[in-house]
Specification:
The chain is α/β, with parallel strands linked by helices. It has one domain: Rossmann fold, CATH 3.40.50. 39% of the residues lie in helices and 14% in strands. It has a seven-stranded mixed β-sheet, with helices on both faces. A hairpin with a 2-residue loop joins strand 1 and strand 2. Helix 1 packs across helix 6 and helix 3 runs parallel beside helix 6. The longest helix is centred in the middle third of the chain and has 17 residues. It is globular. The termini are far apart.
């Protein structure tokens, strides 16, 4: 079962080793369970609205205006942040900086666990982050922090997030905003 970390302060076992796989199209993964997308959206909204320092980590796929969908998704990510009252910490450049970096001085997309620790982030959303980087970062975060992670993935999703919503494009992001607004009303916010 994918548990809210720290998962024994080690990158192992990762979710896949625990037989947790990405959801099929039209579904979402919540912890180790395949659920309807709206159920996962509601739980993601609740986590972001009730945990300390909710933060969105947008990646290059929504930060750069490389096509019309990216432009619209960026606008919707901003609306999601505003609706949640969440901070935004961009992950615009996560190329390794070799031979040496000082992770305390760098903008920290290379070490998301340090960003989460230093900002005391208890819930976050990854959106527009390339899958290869999101997979590694979510494993590190799961192993070394107690942050509730949510992946809004444009592709197949990320099994190491507490909640992963796959195939998230403009229509799904608009739906997520509506769900957040409903959950806010239910929570009396």
């Amino acid at each position: 079962m994918a548990k809210l970390g720290p998962s024994s302060y080690s990158p192992y076992p990762v979710a896949m080793y625990e037989s947790i796989l990405n959801p099929p199209p039209g579904k979402a993964l919540m912890y180790d369970e395949i659920v309807d997308e709206e159920i996962a959206m509601r739980e993601a909204a609740k986590a972001m609205l009730t945990r300390d320092n909710p933060t969105i980590f947008p990646g290059p796929q929504v930060l750069y205006e490389w096509n019309e969908e990216a432009k619209e998704k960026a606008r919707l990510v901003r609306r999601i942040a505003d609706t949640l009252g969440a901070k935004i910490i961009p992950m615009y450049d996560y190329r390794p900086k070799y031979p040496k970096i000082d992770p305390e001085k760098e903008i920290n997309p290379n070490h998301p666990n340090l960003t989460i620790w230093h900002n005391n982030i208890k819930a976050c959303i990854f959106v527009g982050v390339h899958c290869h980087y999101a997979n590694v970062a979510l494993k590190i975060i799961r192993a070394e922090t107690d942050c509730f992670t949510i992946a809004l993935c444009g592709n197949a999703g990320h099994e190491d997030a507490m909640i992963t919503l796959r195939d998230q494009h403009t229509e799904e992001l608009e739906k997520f905003i509506r769900v957040i607004e409903e959950v806010k009303r239910e929570l009396g916010r």
